[in-house]
């Protein structure tokens, strides 16, 4: 399968999976890296080509997307994001931003991406009857605004959370980690909520091989 065919099959759907205005993103994983990985395997192109064809995700499609996300974090051939998170943590990557989402959070992300792609695929219909978006990775806050449903399950059992705390005021920053709600600091500038899109580690601007070669030829002529 040619690179052009892969891009035609997957670009719009890969856009929803990696980030658009209505879905979430993987911190530090921009569209360039995702597209490069998608181009390494024809199965990924077919995978993204099927995203959004039905409003309900098939088990096969979800498993394929699990594998893609694991590959995005350097674990090709794996599909269990929880085990990948565990291995990365054991390897010294303690910062949550460096780890893939857990299974529950990833499921919600995939639901959002699929729902968005389903809307794009049916955008030419004058009237589109959609299922409740609250069943597909979003929720309404107390003021009635639509927001992400990051997780459907608790991050840990209540018995564990009751005993987890952080009394340090500078230790997290010294350890190059982001502070959490459990920290005792006030007016903290080290919180993960202060992260902006400008910190994304790779650009979202992608040049195809043809565009790159054309640019190089133009530079040579000048």
TrEMBL record:
Residues 199-222 are annotated as: Disordered. It comes from the Eukaryota. Residues 207-216 have a biased composition (Low complexity). This is Uncharacterized protein. It comes from Paramuricea clavata (Red gorgonian).
